[in-house]
Amino acid sequence: MWLTWFISQAPRLETLDFRFRPLAPHALAWSCDAELAVALDDALHVFLPNYPNGGAGDDALDGDQMHHQFSMSLQASGIIRPDASINAKLCEAAGVKLPGPRNMEVSAFCGVGRGPVTGSGAALGQIVRVEWSPNGMGQNLRPVLTVLVTNGSIVTLGEHIGSGSTIASSATTRTFRNWRFLWGLGALLPIPDGDCKRGFREMDERIVSFSWAREILPGRGLLAYANDSREIVIMSVQLYSRESELEGSTGDQSAWEICELARFDGRGPHKGWEPEDPDFVPNGSGFSLKWSPWHVSPESRTATLAYIANNHAGFRRISIHGEWEKGRDPTLRVEKTDTTAICIPLYADAFIEWEDAIWSDGDGHMARGIIATPFVPKPFQVDLCSTPSRPMASHSAGQCSSVYAEEDEASTNPITGLIIHHPDPNNKPPAPEYSLVRLSATATNQDWYQTNVSENDAPIPRWAEYVRRHSTRLVPRLAAMEGFESDSDSEDLDDEFMEDDVHMSQVHPHRFRFWGLASSPGDGCTAVLMTKHNTQHPYRRPRSKILFGRPDAAKETTPGKQKGVAKNLTTEGRLWEACYGNQGDVSDIAPTGTGDSLIDQNPLRDLFKDVIAQQRCVYCESRLNISSQESMCENGHSFATCAATGLPIMAPGVSRLCAVCGLRCLKVSELPAIADRYIGSNAVVDSAGDVCGGCGGKFVS
């Protein structure tokens, strides 16, 4: 059976090894489509998930190519220079042409921001952190990847297939050939601005943090960033087709449009400390912004943007009123004061995470989360629709006792990765359920992995068992001094070195550092980025690896939790969880060709059901025998069958291939002409558009 074949061919989820180390924590990000991004000091890695594709024919991967899940990867330079050409397409779409470098020389970056070093252009341009956009933001409705760079810019990468590209018509599998720099912000990068004489302005800002809002509408999203002046800026980001606006244009002319909508003060109420002050504590974080889930009502949608300032966490309510029409700016309202504010001891690299749920509490709509100080996880909750509070008066951190943490909260091992697990919507836990890792894992420090979920509901991940076993292992000191490197638990080595001296001292040969923790789209799997170090010698090998944790396939997921996880996932995310997260069934996601798939539920089938019988072979005019995946005439001419309409696809370049199920769908632009010819000019074509009509997956191109 197709389902049995699919499961048996699913590639193995294996450890990923790198020849670089991370520059900063939180260097790992998992997208809504199960794409994995890793930011290392000298390289950026992006991994695309691989699935067996029964509909791709000769392009299906063979056994050698399917040896592990993330065998399709991109390794790019981790050094990104703020070049104006990054935004050339962005400005061109707005009718602005950027001037070329003077005297044919590449202009030098002279720095930006208030810092004495960064303001002089001394930042190298390494990647600090990565974050995926929400679903539907980029081309083919795929998420795009945004990176924060040390020179003060954020740069977005993703798929871009121009109308004249041959990739769009010939691609049968996903590749990185069409990945590009899409646009960037900050660090003197130009963006269109109609109020400027030249039609664009250079963003004279050093960006120190950013965050994408949760999914709003296809091709429309909000991005927040903070600069080193502690201003927080809300930008609208859109990708839409401008085919009707460009005379003589052919094909898809997708264009990005970015516009600043609002800006507010994010410095907080605390007066600044001078570095010479004895109570000065370094603060600031590249992870200081985070959006809550959206509360959607008939008139508007509302979210809260959490931001971290000097020993202060603020929560600012942001609303979109009315419909956000594509190609227009939304009606955005940013409250003048915070909904609530918390004075709390916060140190460098503090961050905030939200629970992916909104709980009704009387007339309130509560969202909860965790503030990592970053040494202590502190839960909080905010009413997304409550009236903003009065602004907090300016005061010193000493007045509210937020300079130093309590004695029982003292720690020297910061949290470098935290995930909040998806809750059961029918069973609200007392506090957000989370798991975290801390920077250092040694034999004498066993608090590096913590969770408030019971072991019966969430067993300890395999990667945590691996680290615990190897960090507490004892070997003879002589073996460790000679560079013992083994991941086995064999005692043969101990016997070899202890033959002559049974009293030889023993040591723990390894310690570990954690640089990021991420969960898969449906929270079924976890991935951790870590480095392994020798305790007896300086460890100069720039190595790191990603370890995965997945549930035991023999253990069933509770029905309530499975229902809560699967409700908002993309088809790609659902397929990942079915294969590796023990959630759901593959047969409920990808069409099997047995008549029980989503194809039979598609409304386009009802519209074109009478047209199917009228189709004739384009070669011999004979009748066609239509099946779910292939249509064949009496003389043996075969054609692919459109998964959305059931019509045979009898011309090249008029269909698109689904990257999930391998079936083809006629392009949306082709359907009105077919309906007008066979049904009439009054036929209404209600198409899924940029997703497969069979499984809801995204197209290859």
Describe the structure.
This protein has four domains: 26-32 and 80-265, no CATH class; 284-405, no CATH class; 423-478 and 505-589, no CATH class; 591-678, no CATH class. By secondary structure, it is mostly beta strands. Strands 16, 17, 18, 19, 20 and 21 form a six-stranded antiparallel beta sheet that branches. Strands 1-34-33-32-28 form a five-stranded antiparallel beta sheet. It has a four-stranded antiparallel beta sheet with strand order 2-3-4-5, with no helix packed on it. The chain has ten helices and 40 strands.
Helices, strands, pairings?
Elements (H helix, E strand, L loop, with lengths): L1 H8 L6 E3 L9 E3 L5 E4 L3 E6 L23 E6 L10 H6 L33 E6 L12 E5 L3 E7 L7 H4 L8 E8 L3 E3 L7 E3 L4 E6 L7 E8 L3 E11 L12 E12 L23 E3 L3 E2 L3 E10 L2 E10 L9 E4 L5 E4 L7 E4 L4 E3 L2 E9 L4 E7 L31 E6 L13 E5 L1 E2 L7 E3 L10 H10 L3 E2 H5 L10 H6 L8 E2 L2 E10 L6 E9 L9 E6 L9 H8 L4 H10 L22 H10 L11 E3 L3 E4 L4 E4 L6 E2 L5 E3 L6 E3 L4 H8 L23
Antiparallel strand pairs: 1-34, 2-3, 3-4, 4-5, 6-7, 7-8, 8-9, 10-11, 12-13, 13-14, 14-15, 16-18, 17-18, 18-19, 19-20, 19-21, 22-24, 23-24, 24-25, 26-27, 27-29, 28-32, 30-31, 32-33, 33-34, 35-36, 36-37, 37-38, 39-40
List keywords for this structure.
40 strands; 10 helices; 5-stranded antiparallel β-sheet; 701 residues; single chain; mainly beta
Mean pLDDT: 84
Structural class: mainly beta
Number of strands: 40
Determine the oligomeric state from the structure.
single chain
Q: Estimate what percentage of residues fall within beta strands.
A: 25-35%
Q: Major sheet, described briefly? A: 6 strands, antiparallel
- Rounded to an integer in angstroms, the radius of gyration calculated over CA atoms is 27 Å
Helix content percent band = 10-25%
**Roughly how many Å apart are the termini?**
29 Å
Overall form = globular
Provide the low-confidence segments as ranges: 1-5, 54-65, 244-251, 487-494, 497-502, 556-566, 593-599
Counted up, domains total 4
Task: Please give the count of helices.
Answer: 10
Domain Transcription factor IIIC putative zinc-finger: 614-699
Pfam families: TFIIIC_delta, zf-TFIIIC
Domain Transcription factor IIIC 90kDa subunit N-terminal: 30-534
